[in-house]
What we know:
single chain, 149 residues, mainly beta, 3-stranded antiparallel beta sheet, globular, disordered C terminus
Amino acid sequence: MNRAVRFHETGGPGVLRLEEVPVPAPAPGEVLIRTRALGLNRAESMFRLGQYGIDPAFPSGVGYEAAGVIEALGEGVSGLSVGEAVSVVPSFTMTDYPMHGEAVLAPVGAVVAHPQRLSFEEPRPCGCSSSPPTAAWSTSRASAPATPS
């Protein structure tokens, strides 16, 4: 199984749940990534509140930014390898590709090589034009245990 952050109604942080969901299988043009770090910024908060301009479809996942290691490649994906460290550039909607989970799918066009000089534990702004991440959460170093609902 796979844990993912999801919500079933809009609202404050209390609507977020850590839920057990199946590990997704990559379709053509998709990459399955075992996450090691997740970005968190204003977009996720606004989406969770229902104020982002794209309405969540419940139950909804959340998250635009992630970094981790490739577990599987969908048909037609080239230039990437299973086991490669990668980062995800937010160039899709959270309704299509939510990133806050242990194993997530990303469209191949949003997946880039993770800089070798940067560990997964070091949060860094990605240089996004909207707003850089204000916090990062590493799935390997969660400060408080979460209980699946």
